[in-house]
Write a structure and sequence with these properties.
Structural class of chain B: mainly alpha
Distance between the termini of chain A: 43 Å
Structural class of chain A: alpha+beta
Helix content of chain A: 25-40%
Number of domains of chain B: 2
Helix content of chain B: over 70%
Number of strands of chain A: 16
Shape of chain A: globular
Oligomer: heterodimer
Number of strands of chain B: 0
Order of helices and strands of chain B: HHHHHHHHHH
CATH architecture of the largest domain in chain B: Orthogonal Bundle
Radius of gyration of chain B: 18 Å
CATH topology of the largest domain in chain B: Arc Repressor Mutant, subunit A
Number of helices of chain B: 10
Radius of gyration of chain A: 21 Å
Order of helices and strands of chain A: HHHEEEEEEEHEHEHEHEHEEEEEH
Strand content of chain A: 15-25%
Chain lengths: 350, 183
């Protein structure tokens, strides 16, 4: 018996209850995914009032009222990606059909007339100083010495935690209408939030320039110092790893390249998270039959080092769809053909 | 026929129970056997073996969830039959399943270690931590051997999205097993 056959056999030892559950019709697609997540966040007090954000303080800065070791939350993060999003809280567990891939905990925060999703940074190996209270938000602070909104600090009973911006919430009109209806009928936890008003908040797809400006404080190409371009890693078979090694990692500091990337990023629109169906990474209909190798060939992961000392690590690009995307299925509009070709060349995808 | 009635008849050694099983679960078990074996005649024989196995097992067994119980037996017998005839042929989804699962196994994973119950417990723990939708997708692929196209329809997803999601789940399983010190 081969190892694969033995593994297949081991599944026979799973409990009947689990096997029986899988025979039931699958839960509906998580169309209301964020509604549930956000509602729970609200319930847990993770989502709070409208305000500005925070950024990271350079290490050792001592200008704050309190120097705080971030990461003291009592969360064992060894299973990041597997645990339910709010497993450490005493609140009711997440619905069984919610999906949380990257972040252990999340928070929904009003930001500039929109709802921003922040993820707790699992292992922030930093010493940060508390800055001003995040305006109107009890328990939330900006790290001292920064004006952008990439990071926020939350004071919790067990310590301080660090949170990083992920994306803005995008709802289709149908979804927003459903939330309004739920609020009217008193069945939505969104309704318990004083700041949440679906009639005034903007849930439409948004330009990435908004994120660059409001979240990262990037207003020109000069704010980007360098771009580290790494191979995509969705195929970790021997062949996939060999291709990744062949592609390698390189750093781009060319001002013209920086300008092209900045202009391109500003031109694209974010369609929201959990939009995997709108991301064509080139794996085709059979990713396990070699398509993932093609996705590696056509994909690159970007790290933008910023002049303010921060970095943007979430952007990914695929030449298959000619589009950027991020963790969590955050999808951006495909680029114009000519622009996509320029970006592909810039990133070394031929 | 209700599950409780089938089990009652089995305890009474009434052969009507087998008729009830075939009517209620012939399609479920036959479909699973066919997906694993890829041969209709083999699948039919396999399902007949299932009824016999059930007849001999109940009593004393009294399964709480009869469909899952039957599928477990069907899967076992189908895999046995597949192993017996694999030199000659291998059809259905099994070849794909084995290929996909190979990604969860590094070369240094010794075959003997796989027999360890701790591996099974770790897989169970991994699945328990997934959201229900992901867990169902994983089990319907790797336990119930459903093809990607069927899963795509059932989950209202594109086939490519199903494959990508399964690939992520396998990667996460491998990482989890590594984290648990099993790999």
């Amino acid at each position: 018996m081969t190892k694969e056959e033995k593994l297949l056999r081991l599944l026979d030892q799973l409990p009947e209850k689990m096997l029986a559950e899988a025979l039931e019709p699958p839960a509906a697609p998580s169309r209301r995914h964020w509604r549930r997540l956000a509602a729970l966040a609200a319930c847990l007090g993770l989502a709070v009032g409208l305000g500005l954000g925070a950024g990271q303080l350079p290490e050792g800065s001592g200008v704050s009222p309190a120097q705080t070791a971030i990461g003291s939350a009592p969360v064992e993060t060894g299973s990041v990606g597997l645990l339910p999003a709010v497993v450490i809280t005493p609140a009711p567990p997440l619905g069984s059909d919610t999906y949380q891939e990257q972040a252990l905990r999340f928070a929904m925060l009003p930001l500039g007339g929109r709802v921003a999703e922040y993820h707790q940074v699992p292992r922030p190996d930093r010493i940060l100083s508390l800055g001003d209270p995040y305006e109107g938000l009890e328990g939330w602070y900006r790290p001292a010495g920064t004006e952008n909104l990439q990071y926020l600090i939350r004071e919790e009973a067990e310590g301080y935690t660090l949170w990083e911006f992920a994306s803005f919430l995008v709802w289709e009109a149908e979804e927003a209408a459903a939330v309004r209806a739920d609020i009217s009928s008193g069945t939505s936890l969104w309704g318990t939030l004083g700041w949440f008003d679906p009639d005034t908040l903007d849930f439409s797809p948004y330009p990435y320039s908004l994120v660059l400006e409001q979240v990262y404080g990037v207003t020109s190409a000069a704010d980007i110092c360098s771009i580290t371009i790494s191979p995509a890693d969705m195929d970790n078979t021997d062949a996939g790893k060999a291709l990744q090694a062949e592609i390698g990692t390189r750093v781009l500091t060319d001002p013209e390249g920086m300008a092209l990337l900045y202009e391109t990023l500003c031109s694209m629109t974010c369609l929201g998270g959990d939009r995997w169906a709108q991301i064509d990474r080139g794996e085709g209909d059979n990713p396990d039959g070699g398509g993932l190798l093609e996705a590696v060939r056509l994909g690159r992961y970007l790290t933008l080092e910023l002049a303010n000392g921060e970095s943007i690590t979430s952007l990914k690009y695929t030449a298959a769809g000619g589009q950027f995307y991020e963790y969590g299925g955050v999808a951006y509009t495909p680029l114009e053909r000519k622009t996509a070709a320029q970006i592909s060349r810039l990133l070394g995808i031929f | 026929m209700e599950d409780s009635e089938i089990i009652r008849l089995l305890f009474q050694r009434d052969q009507q129970a087998l008729t009830g099983l075939a009517r209620s679960y012939g399609s479920l078990c036959g479909g699973l056997a066919l997906r694993i074996l890829g041969d209709r005649r083999d699948a039919e024989e396999c399902v007949n073996d299932v009824w016999l196995r059930v007849w001999n097992a109940i009593p004393p067994a009294r399964p709480e969830r009869l469909p899952a119980y039957l599928c477990r037996i069907t899967r076992n017998l189908a895999l046995d039959r597949l192993a017996g005839c694999r030199r000659q042929k291998r059809g259905g989804e099994s070849a794909f399943l084995l290929c996909e699962l190979s990604e969860c196994l590094p070369a240094r994973w010794d075959t003997e270690e796989l027999a360890d119950d701790s591996v099974a417990r770790a897989i169970e723990a991994f699945l328990a931590r997934l959201d229900r939708r992901s867990r169902t997708l994983f089990l319907r692929r790797y336990f119930y051997a459903e093809p990607v196209s069927t899963l795509a329809e059932a989950f209202s997803m594109k086939a490519s999205t199903v494959s990508t999601t399964l690939n992520r789940l396998r990667t996460r399983l491998r990482h989890y097993l590594e984290q648990e010190g099993i790999l």
